[in-house]
Amino acid sequence: MEDIKDKDLTSLPENAFRELGADEEYRPVMNPEKPAREVTAYSVSMGLLLAVIFSAAAAYLGLRVGQVFEAAIPIAIIAVGMSQALKKDNPLGQNVIIQSIGACSGVIVAGAIFTLPAIYILQAKYPELTVNFLQVFMSSLLGGILGILFFIPFRKYFVKDMHGKYPFPEATATTQVLISSQAKNGGGQSKTLILAALIGGVYDYIVATCGWWAETISTTAMSWGQTIADKFKVVFTCNTGAALLGLGYIVGLKYAFVIFAGSIFVWWIIIPLMAQSPEMAAMAPETIFAQKAKLIGIGGIAMAGLIGIVKSWPIIRQAVGLAAKEMKGGEKTAEKSIRWQTDLTMKSVVTYMVMALIVVFLFFWLGVIGSLWQAVVAWVVVTIIAFLFTTVAANAIAIVGSNPVSGMTLMTLIIASAIFVAIGLDGTSGIVAAMVIGGVVCTALSMAGGFVTDLKIGYWLGSTPRKQETWKFLGTLVSAATVGGVMMLLNNVYGFYASPEHPDPLVAPQANAMASVIEPLMMGGETPWILYFCGAILALLLNFLGVPALAFCLGMFIPLSLNTPMLVGGAIAWFVQHSTKDKALSSARNDRGTLIASGLIAGGALFGVFAALTKFLGFEYVNPISEGYSQLFGLLVYVALICYLLWDSCRAKKLS
User: Fold this and answer.
1) Is 9 left (phi over 0), alpha (psi -120 to 50) or beta?
2) How far is CA 245 from CA 276, 510, 564, 570, 642, in A?
């Protein structure tokens, strides 16, 4: 057998991305019969450090703009750069562990910020609502653990049996980055990323702390634009942040356009139509959006999640059957003795799963609800829904690289709230219970979707699944603790609802959507079922027409100012990809653009946390520039940022 040092580790095998023939086998980059250097003090400590950094960064960005960037690629690039700088010998296995541990950050953040800030948001009406660090921490931790354990039985199905049938877009990109650690010029990628991160970070930091230019440019800043807004209820806005521009590039033109179309539909059609009603004629467009229009999007998101379950049902049945076979010991071949295909034993998984579910029950009973039998009901709801949706989330990531976790969580909250009200768990105590429990489900689904990416990366490269699965728990613990602390810091600095202390609160769109759904259900108010129903019908129609319903409906409840730069970034990505007819050069330019965009995202988000700390420490800056000049300057600086992304992306040269 060839030794790992003798094998070409700089590229994936030819059959990595296609289906295998009848007698064909896939052999990973690292020799599967040989031991690999994976878990070391360096790889674990570096993975944990990046988990802390990116948890803080992703929490800020997600609460600020409603989008949680995937940390896998930036973390992989940093791991590659560090291994080059430290001159590590054959660092591939260690870099996989670094990426796998560090990637806990994005998935834990998504589970927490989509749900738990809703409690803070509703404090504006119900001051007695409270949530403490332990509740936030345990909700994220237990959800992450359940997501890991529920997915492990399905690893073989998704990453091995379906080889070549799923594209795994994020796993593909991350794997290619990790492979570069074996190339002599791999460190060049990290330099490009660091430069872009500094540019994006300083850019967003100046806006957040000094406000030298407008963070959001709007037509209402001009007299003619204000007139149009007053008379026709039509506005156009665009956030000038670096992180959002990079995020749009990564998402690409297709989905960015669909999201933007959802925004235009609600802001330029639904809101003007609603304004014809006498009760809303005097409202500002922003008020109509917040109180009425975005509720249609919420109904659409819930229906889009249901559509996803229906479409994925055959896959769920097949995955459950495979898991049952594994648990009964149906796989007793030599494959289990091969390092590359060795999972945690099913006995261990079941034992840990039982222990985790017991802790979840005790947490619900003693830490959230207080009533034994109500805790039992909540526990049953969480267990069934989290397990059922695990494969749905993994399937979504495997196909399109996007996890519809917010839609599935929204539907979970509606179902859970209806059940809780029926058993007497309502009012403010019901709100806290529903949101904390919803956080567990949301984090579990987010983790399952993210974990399939990590394990597919390990499959392509030849890592040991058991080691990835084992150390994922530690990454989850650290990320959950970080997210809880950052969330409370951001609440103190920015707040989640408008008040004299916090006139410009964090947007937190998903959490606002959750709050809008949960309040009338728990407080006995009037639930806007008609608007939800309209959104559900719209989602069905979009699905019939072949339009991604979830992306469109997400655009309907995220503010237009945050969706416009997504389209700008997506358009830049399209232009870079079509800037030459040479396919190799086009690919090189797009890869460099992805690298730069990742830097803008990571830098903007990280420096956003620094900006929050700056404000928390009492720094105040009074901007002397007038509103009009601030808007103009903001437009000019934003155009300069766009030019940088275009120019630097097109500087790439194809490999000879």
Assistant:
1) alpha
2) 35, 20, 9, 8, 8
Over the stretch 375-410, which tens digit does the pLDDT of each residue have? 898 899 888 888 877 777 777 676 555 555 666 677
Give exposure, 103-134, as e/b (b: 16+ Cβ within 10 Å): bbbbbbbbbbbbbbbbbbbbbeeeeebebeee
Q: Which residues contact 1 (CB under 8 A, 6 or more apart)?
A: 31, 33, 34
Report, as an integer, the average pLDDT of 537-558.
87
Question: Strand pairing partners for 216?
Answer: 239
Beta-bridge mates of residue 148? none
Q: Which amino acid is at 221?
A: A
Q: How far is CA 398 from CA 309, 450, 612, in A?
A: 15, 10, 35
Band of residue 321 on the pLDDT scale cut at 50, 70, 90: low
Give CA–CA dist 296/87, Å, rounded: 55
CB 97 within 8 A of CB 48: no
Cα–Cα distances (Å) from 502 to 19, 374, 457, 499, 656, in that order, read: 55, 36, 43, 5, 55
**Residue 301: C-alpha distances to residues 66, 259, 410, 557 (Å):** 15, 12, 8, 10
Distance (Å, whole) CA 237 – CA 219: 7
Position 334 confidence tier, pLDDT thresholds 50, 70, 90: very low
Q: What is the pLDDT of residue 65?
A: 58
Rounded CA gap, 48 and 45, in Å?
Answer: 5
Does 187 score more than 60 pLDDT?
no
Q: Dump strand ranges (E) for 162-278.
A: 216-218, 237-239
Tokens 């179309």 correspond to 261
pTM: 0.71
CA dihedral 551, 553, 556, 557 (to 10 degrees): -100
Residue 202 has pLDDT above 80, yes or no: yes
- The predicted-structure confidence for 499-518, as pLDDT tens digits, reads as follows 788 777 877 777 877 787 78
CA neighbor of 433 nearest in space, from 111, 119, 63:
119
Q: Give the pLDDT confidence score for residue 382 in this predicted structure.
A: 85
DSSP element (H, E) containing 556: helix 549-557
Distance CA 386, CA 233 (A): 41
Rounded (5°) CA angle 44-50-54: 150
Spatial separation of the C-alpha atoms in residues 174 and 168, rounded to whole Å: 10
The tokens for 199 are: 């540019």
- 69 CB contacts (<8 Å, ≥6 apart)? 58, 61, 106, 243, 247, 250, 601, 602, 605
